[in-house]
Design brief:
This protein is α/β, with parallel strands linked by helices. The chain folds into three domains: 97 residues, Elongation Factor Tu (Ef-tu), domain 3 (Beta Barrel); 109 residues, Rossmann fold (3-Layer(aba) Sandwich), CATH 3.40.50; 86 residues, Beta-grasp domain (Ubiquitin-like (UB roll)), CATH 3.10.20. The strands form five sheets. A five-stranded parallel β-sheet has the order 10-9-8-11-12, with helices on both faces. Strands 14-13-19-15-17 form a five-stranded mixed β-sheet, covered by helices on one side. A four-stranded antiparallel β-sheet has the order 5-2-1-6, covered by helices on one side. A hairpin with a 2-residue loop joins strand 3 and strand 4. The longest helix has 13 residues. The two termini are 32 Å apart. The structure holds FE2/S2 (inorganic) cluster. One of its GO terms (molecular function) is oxidoreductase activity. InterPro entries: 2Fe-2S_ferredoxin-like_sf, 2Fe-2S_ferredoxin-type, 2Fe2S_fd_BS, Beta-grasp_dom_sf, FAD-bd_FR_type, FNR_nucleotide-bd, MRET, OxRdtase_FAD/NAD-bd. It comes from Cupriavidus necator (Alcaligenes eutrophus). Keywords: 2Fe-2S, Flavoprotein, Iron, Iron-sulfur, Metal-binding, Oxidoreductase. This is Oxidoreductase.
Length: 330
């Protein structure tokens, strides 16, 4: 391992020690990773995530939930999902203290806006993780904010003691609905009137995300931010032109042309051809595979790029060309 902090900053991955696993709520454990030799870890900002290599071929992204001011540890929290793809089960079953675990350096696709006069944070269940980190950062910066944390009941809400302490500031509000969203926070009412300078951040399960999206639909688009921790039910692609016949992808640097068949994944085709495309979530959630496109029509299927970014970038792990030739800046 490198010993100087400068050298460490240049790394893309780290091998850390799992120092602590803590039960935070029913089905939710937190995992604390530290440097084996006690060095500082690369800094992160609120909203960042790390890739955790759980087992060979099993990599998942988890938001950091501790304070960005802490350099000695990364903390993530994971809800065990029996119906999931196996990542959360792997975390709960195979992560044992003091395992050595490979993680990526933090990346942030869910940044706090530096110019926000006020921030409204809406957390649904385990979606609280990136928002808790934001609370730490906003508190440290003495910024005006409020966190609304929605869960079925206190026993399902992670970080109870920390949040209770924060609740004393009057900025943290817990909403327990007993499993019936109609008895929980009225998100539409909360976001009824957009306030100038206020930014909204939300993260949670599918139904919660949809409720927040609808409630904030009339807010200026650049003041509303969200992060999916699971791909929503795939959007209908009927009408996407050209994919039935496949398409050509051209690599601008070499002029190499590759044929992508209708049932082929663009990221896999690029990787097979030796193009420098890295993937992580393979679900259009993390932005790792983001590539600049130069021409051609694209069927965007990600959940991370906004309309402005889509004008220049695409995520080949889930998105594809719509027939004809797609030229990529590779
Ligand atoms: S690998 Fe995560 S968005 Fe493509």
């Amino acid at each position: 391992m490198n010993s100087s902090n400068n050298e460490r900053e240049a790394l893309t991955h780290l091998e850390l020690v799992l120092r602590q696993v803590r039960m935070e709520a029913n089905g939710i454990n937190s995992f604390e990773f530290v440097d084996p030799e006690g060095h500082d870890l690369p800094a992160f900002t609120a909203g960042a995530h790390i890739d955790v290599h759980i087992a060979p071929g099993l990599v998942r992204q988890y938001s950091l939930c501790n304070s960005p001011s802490e350099r000695h540890r990364y903390v993530v929290a994971v809800l065990r999902d029996e119906a999931g793809r196996g990542g959360s089960r792997g975390m709960h079953e195979s992560m044992r203290v003091p395992n050595r675990v490979k993680v990526s350096v933090p990346r942030n696709n869910f940044l706090l806006a530096g110019d926000a006069a006020k921030v409204i944070l809406l957390a649904g269940g385990i979606g609280v993780t990136p928002l808790k980190s934001m609370v730490h950062q906003l508190e440290a910066e003495s910024k005006d904010f409020e966190l609304h944390y929605c869960a079925k009941g206190p026993e399902f809400a992670a970080f109870q003691s920390e949040l209770e302490r924060m609740a004393k500031t009057g900025k943290v509000h817990c909403h327990f609905d007993g499993g019936d969203p109609a008895k929980g926070l009225n998100i539409a009412q909360l976001l009824q009137t957009p306030e100038v300078g206020t930014h909204v951040y939300y993260c949670g399960p599918g139904g919660f995300m949809e409720a927040c999206k609808q409630a904030a639909a009339h807010w200026p688009a650049d003041t509303v931010h969200c992060e999916h921790f699971k791909a929503p039910v795939q959007k209908a692609t009927a009408g996407s032109s050209g994919t039935a016949e496949g398409y050509i992808v051209e690599l601008a640097a070499s002029g190499q042309k590759l044929t992508v068949l209708p049932d082929q994944n663009l990221a896999e085709v690029l990787q097979k051809a030796g193009a420098p495309v890295e993937t992580s979530c393979a679900s259009g959630l993390c932005g790792t595979c983001k590539v600049r496109h130069l021409s051609g029509e694209i069927d965007h299927q990600d959940f991370i790029l906004d309309d402005t970014e889509r004008q220049s970038f695409m995520t080949p792990c889930v998105s594809r060309g719509c027939g004809g030739t797609l030229v990529l800046d590779l």
